[in-house]
Amino acid sequence: MSDVLLEIENLHVTFASPHGPIRAVDGLSLRAERGATLGVVGESGSGKSVTFLAAMRLLDPATATVSGRIRLDGVDLLTLPSREMQTVRGPRIGMIFQDPLAALHPLLRVGDQISETLRAHGDISRRDASDRAVAALRRVGIPSPDERARQYPHELSGGMRQRVMIAMALVLEPELLIADEPTTALDTTVEAQILALIDDLRTRIGLGVVLISHSLATVSQVADTVAVMYAGRAIERGPCSDVFGQPQHPYTWGLLDSLPAVDGGHESLTPIPGAPPSLADLPPGCRFGPRCGYRMPACGERVPDLVERHAGHADACILPMDGREGLRRAPIAHPANSEPAP
Predict the structure, then answer these.
(1) Tell me: the pLDDT tens digits for 209-224?
(2) Is the CB of residue 172 less than 8 Å from the CB of residue 129?
(3) Burial category of 58 from C-beta neighbours within 10 Å (exposed 0-12, middle 13-18, buried 19 and up)
(4) For residue 66, what pLDDT band results from cuts at 50, 70 and 90?
């Protein structure tokens, strides 16, 4: 059995809009392996969530056009009939959505919602489903699970609701867990508990995990590999230690340089100037070019391919590898006030 569990190849997702086609994902290729965590980071609108909603076949075909290949154990999910796809969602792929309060039904007790998941995918009695729902809540560290199972989502704290979502995603024992911003709006202590819980489950049951996040710090704690996305494309990808320890793309440099120092220093942060482009009106060439202080005339001529420079570490930048570290250490000129580098 291959270590590759989910393989996304040349994925394109386009939405129709009054302003023209919105290319939310444009030629993306990623891999998630068994028993490992893939971190996916980038600014809002970079295509992180859309990619995995496409993998779950949860995008409305009336408004979204999806092409490419999304293989689970070699089977292309995009070609599966809808009825067969129902046997993939839940039993094989579980997903934690960004906002548990919005994802959970406000008028149903949380235990009933987990029970409903079990009964929808198997021949199981109401009593057995209820017992397994309580066991699932206990498994994710919820105290007094019998009592919590009888409560409604609004009666639980944010951390508890997040644990309920994890319990629901894992109750059918899937092979892959997609965690979309699983710690958003949680305090630091609860965030650490949630991340530790997911990592413990990955270790104990060999779960493959995709962790989608804005937070590089969060991803650096638990991910084995990481993909940095920008404007619908992966612009850097590789082992977590390499991408964060020896970043190769100017966008990744900018993300890391904008973080506060962990040693408590008081140096000014270096923000990335500007904003991501409109996906309905993308700039020519490199999409990060208008914000990049290192751009050259050639950057506007073509979209750079994602090229592996070192073992397993790839980036999409035309800057020569020789001297990149020296460039990063040099002062960055604001793109709006500078001429392209020669």
Answers:
(1) 999 998 888 899 899 9
(2) no
(3) middle
(4) very high
Q: What is the pLDDT of residue 218?
A: 87
Quick check: 16 pLDDT over 90?
yes
SS (H, E, C) 50-81: HHHHHHCCCCCCCCEEEEEEEEECCEEHHHCC
Q: Tell me the two tokens of residue 97.
A: 């959505």
Sheet holding 4-15, edge to edge: 22-33, 4-15, 64-72, 75-76
Count of all residues that appear for the chain in the document: 342
Residue type for position 227 = A
C-alpha–C-alpha distance, residues 200 and 177, integer Å: 13
Question: 127-155 burial string, b = 16+ CB within 10 Å, else e?
Answer: eebbbbbbebbbbbbbeebeebbeeebee
CA angle 48–51–55, rounded 5-degree value: 140
- The region of weakest confidence among 113-127, 151-165, 309-323 is 309-323
Which pLDDT tens digit goes with each residue over 267-281?
677 889 999 999 999
Spans of all domains in the chain: 103-171, 249-337
**Of 80, 76, 81, 47, which Cα lies nearest the Cα of 64?**
47
Per-residue confidence (pLDDT) for residue 2, from 0 to 100: 65
DSSP letter for 219, please: H
> Of 68, 79, 56, which Cα lies nearest the Cα of 13?
68
